[in-house]
Amino acid sequence: MAVVEVKTTMSIVLVFFQMVWLMGMAVSSTAYSSAYPSDADQACDMEGGELKVVRREEYDGGRILDISHVYSEDMPVWESSDGLGHFLWLAKSMKNGSLANSSEMKLPTHTGTHVDAPGHVFQHYFEAGFDVDTLDLAVLNGPALLVDVPRDKNITAEVMKSLSIPKGVRRVLFRTLNTDRKLMWKREWDTSYVGFMKDGAQWLVENTDIKLVGVDYLSVAAYDDLIPSHLVFLESREIILVEALKLDDIKPGIYSLHCLPLRLRGAEGSPIRCILIK
Ligand SMILES: *[C@@H]1O[C@H](CO)[C@@H](O)[C@H](O)[C@H]1NC(C)=O
Ligand SMILES: *[C@@H]1O[C@H](CO)[C@@H](O)[C@H](O)[C@H]1NC(C)=O
Ligand SMILES: *[C@@H]1O[C@H](CO)[C@@H](O)[C@H](O)[C@H]1NC(C)=O
User: Fold this and answer.
1) Residue 221: nearest ligand to its CA?
2) What is the torsion angle, in degrees rounded to the nearest 10, for the CA atoms of residue 264, residue 269, residue 270 and residue 271?
């Protein structure tokens, strides 16, 4: 999430070098251009001589589940009712004589499925360099529990207690009313999302071994306790917050979680790709 007070939201520009696989043979120029459809992220299948995109939420017969959201112009962003908007464009195109198609993008680091580093809400941590490149990959990867949170409350100490998460569990993905409300599919940013209240965050820190907290909207903290909850989680620099996960249609239980942020030195947030493996 991007915080009002902490206007350190950084924009990044990344250049994609699109690899075009020619399947080892010469391909006509029409087939060649359709190999790069307007949306990225695809697998290609030949069907009746036509290149056809196959998009997936899971792989290998459901063994690997993608829990990251697709980046789209219509996805919600912090404090905006207009959504992300135009963020990806073709800077160099073969049609215009370049050797390859090459896109550029610009987006706040706290967009879509993303991770927060301690520098997000602590100025002294930011200045000391606790950016996303310092986050522990051993915490971001390992066994994780997906739990359903009661739908009628924010995550308070009482709710945390009622979940009875056993000691020893180090990574928990909290599925809430946000998933039922499909909030990540709505362009308009919504402050009524469910998140941690300060006492819920405090309870988690004091009574569990959880070091990775995953949630299903743009902030782990309920809007009413936005900064207090973040402070409680990030103070020790031991807990990693992964936000805006796509947890629809996944059975509660234990999975192997794999999350990889980008190595953005100096950035207090990063887009992150997370998958669950059964
Ligand atoms: C490159 O990408 C653009 C935009 O998708 C497309 O129009 C074009 O056909 C692609 N390929 C070539 C060879 O230009
Ligand atoms: C290609 O060049 C034309 C003419 O300069 C320009 O209008 C168009 O936007 C360019 N397209 C891309 C994909 O760069
Ligand atoms: C959670 O808190 C937000 C304010 O931060 C509030 O708008 C929302 O109604 C609460 N949700 C539930 C289910 O109590």
Assistant:
1) 3
2) -170
Whether residue 36 has pLDDT greater than 70: no
Contact status, residue 80 vs residue 86, Cβ threshold 8 Å: no
Ligand 3 pocket test, candidate residues 192, 216, 220, 225, most atoms within 8 A of CB: 192
Going by the DSSP 8-state scheme, the letter that residue 244 receives in this structure is S
**What is the full DSSP assignment across 53-98?**
EE--SEEGGGTEEE-SPPP-TTS--TT-SS-S---EEEEE-GGGT-
Q: What is the pTM of this model?
A: 0.82
Measured from CB, residues less than 6 Å from any atom of ligand 2 are 90, 93, 96
Regarding the beta carbon of 68 and ligand 3, being less than 6 Å apart is answered no
pLDDT for 47 equals 63
Mean pLDDT of 219-236: 97
255/149 Cα distance (integer angstroms): 17
For residue 164, the CA-to-ligand 2 centroid distance in Å is 58
| Residues 212 and 243: beta-carbon distance below 8 Å | no
Give the pLDDT of residue 210: 98
Q: Which ligand is nearest to the CA of 35?
A: 1
Cα-Cα-Cα-Cα dihedral sign, residues 248, 78, 211, 65: positive
Average pLDDT over residues 80-109: 96
Residue 3: pLDDT over 70 = no
